[in-house]
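Q: What residues go here?
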């Protein structure tokens, strides 16, 4: 798993038009580490969000595309990056077209000026992982937050995972409607449950494979002296137990039977109670062997950073592409030892890293090692510490 180093790429130009607070931005960078510094609300996170849209989904804020257009703009936006890779230069673009006569909006994707079918096509050229402040409560929050985090881990190594998850959600909604409106239509329910079972096992299997690979990588590369403790990971849920113990075909049959038997209960609940939509990702603080939720706030932050860094390594080794890493305000709450350890680890991963922070002092030790950029509303300029 750890033999060949992944190929490293750089974004050398980022262009934004009518995106969030940026009317027209043409930003050139040249280093693997990029630090964006500015006051809250200046537009730092907007830059990370723009880059995150080169993955399937709605980006690191999980916002609607229509909410990303610039206030007072034409109602559309465009993002493009020039990507320097070991195999040549590529230009990737995405955005939102201006609404047509019927008021519909359409996302566009282009690779080297040619139309791409969906954002999943970008995975041939780049992979992206990120960490944002809203994940600080991940271990203490509801299971749904951890499922979304888990699916993002999978999506970074399997660009089609998001489409499967969305298809499963649609199939489950259809089953719930039929159970509510016409619960005696057994043929229709049988057909829907066949579709649900196929999608559910595929989603659960993809999650399990990613978690097992990530857990193995963490075990193989853990460092007891690291400022970021290692995590142990397991999946909890009835569907996950099926996938762990049965071949896929047998797991589908068993889950179909569970759905059929559970129709009265699911109808009373108004939702399907068993399936990947009930999975939880259980994380433990490895060195202390305690649930992550029981660790201190500082330990949870360090554990989460360690988990994201391990995931970045996994993405690189599984895809052959060192991922871009987006870190929003990640250094602000780290002590000097952990901050220095973070910067050293990021450099060792090989991928380009985009970081934000309100205090220039957080990045003082990166002078000469990173592109340091001052962010003001709509404008980004290079800065010198001295």
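A:
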């Amino acid at each position: 798993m750890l033999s060949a180093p992944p190929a490293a790429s750089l974004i050398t130009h980022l262009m934004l038009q009518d995106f969030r607070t940026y009317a027209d931005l043409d930003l050139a960078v040249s280093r693997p580490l990029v630090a964006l510094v500015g006051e809250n609300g200046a537009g730092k996170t907007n830059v990370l969000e723009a880059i995150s849209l080169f993955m399937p989904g709605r980006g690191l804020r999980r916002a609607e595309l229509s909410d990303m257009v610039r206030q007072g703009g034409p109602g559309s936006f465009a993002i493009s990056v020039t990507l320097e890779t070991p195999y040549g230069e590529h230009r990737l673009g995405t955005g939102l077209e201006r609404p047509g006569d019927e008021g519909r909006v359409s996302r566009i994707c282009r690779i080297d000026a040619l139309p791409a079918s969906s954002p999943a096509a970008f995975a041939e050229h780049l992979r992206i992982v990120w960490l944002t402040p809203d994940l600080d409560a991940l271990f203490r929050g509801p299971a749904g937050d951890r499922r979304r985090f888990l699916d993002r881990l999978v999506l970074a190594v399997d660009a089609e995972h998001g489409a499967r998850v969305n298809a499963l959600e649609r199939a489950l909604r259809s089953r719930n409607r039929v159970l509510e409106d016409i619960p005696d239509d057994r043929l229709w329910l049988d057909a829907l449950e066949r579709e649900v079972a196929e999608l559910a096992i595929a989603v659960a299997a993809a999650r399990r494979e990613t978690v097992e690979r990530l857990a193995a990588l963490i075990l193989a590369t853990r460092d007891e002296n690291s400022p970021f403790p290692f995590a142990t990971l397991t999946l909890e849920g009835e569907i996950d137990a099926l996938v762990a113990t049965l071949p896929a075909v047998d797991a589908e049959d068993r889950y179909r039977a569970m759905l059929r038997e559970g129709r009265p209960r699911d109808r009373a609940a108004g939702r399907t109670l068993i399936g990947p939509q009930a999975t939880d990702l259980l994380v433990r603080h490895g060195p202390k062997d305690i649930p992550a939720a029981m660790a201190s706030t500082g330990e949870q932050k360090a554990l989460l950073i360690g988990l994201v860094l391990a995931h970045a390594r996994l993405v690189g080794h599984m895809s052959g592409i060192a991922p871009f890493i987006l870190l929003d305000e990640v250094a602000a709450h780290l002590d000097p030892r952990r901050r220095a350890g973070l910067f050293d680890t990021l450099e060792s991963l090989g991928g380009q890293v985009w970081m934000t922070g309100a205090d220039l002092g957080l990045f003082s030790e990166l002078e000469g090692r990173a592109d340091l950029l001052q962010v003001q509303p709509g404008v980004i300029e290079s800065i010198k510490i001295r």
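A: Context that may help when evaluating the design: Residues 1-127+321-386 form a domain with the Rossmann fold fold (CATH 3.40.50.300). The chain has nine helices and 15 strands.
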